[in-house]
Design a protein that fits this description.
This protein has two domains: about 80 residues, no CATH class; about 150 residues, Jelly Rolls. Helices cover about 25% and strands about 30% of the residues.
Amino acid sequence: MSIKKEQNGLLILSIFVIASYIFASWWSWSYGCSLGKRPFVELTPIFGIGIASLADKIIQFKKPIISIILLLILLFSTLFSFSLNLHYAGCSFVSDTWDWNEYKLIVNRSRFPLIRFHKYEYSTDFEYFNKELYYPFIFNTDLITKTDTAYSGNYVCRMSPDDLFSFTYRRDFGTITVKDSCNVDFNIKYFFPNIDSNKLNAYLVIQVEEMDSAVYYASQKLESIQNKWLDANINVNLPNFPNYFVLVAYVLNDSSTILLDDFKIRIKF
């Protein structure tokens, strides 16, 4: 429309560019856990003119086969977007930046034909959490603190002898898996400070819950070495659970002082 100097073409393009910049500059990028960019909804009537113009041009193509293909693409995109909105649970994103892994889970949940993802990964080095915000599926963010001893960046999850559970990842995977079983790989960096009262006793844990009851539990004891960053890993193959299940990953502490960094969990469906 702008190139051909059609009415309102340049105006709509200008509104889109200016609005995109303003919306992208807002401090809350998700605009309240919305799927897509919620502020653009208010501009739908304006952008609808552009969509109508596009559809009109497609219909006017001299080759019907091209028109049919382009209309099918437009229809596919519309149905795909509609399906995601129907199956979006709300507040799925668990970081301060866009998370493609969470987006893939939404796609899996929608069960849209021909589109499936078989791998999920969540990782954090604790650098970008805002204690004033709520993070779904994430618990004990109050343990995140700044220190010069961090493995990467400046922040770690610090557990005192009184802290039983570390920074914890907990979410429902039961309705979005695409196989009867899945593989879970949990990795974290840990550090036992040189403290006399430290018992050096903690465990890397993967847990599965059904109806608030633990139905599966696997743990790996952390190696008891002081004053050195070490790598801990646990890998398990989960069986098929008849109902929805909740996957939980954390470090279980037994009266130790521990620093944790580079939390990473991978799931293959």
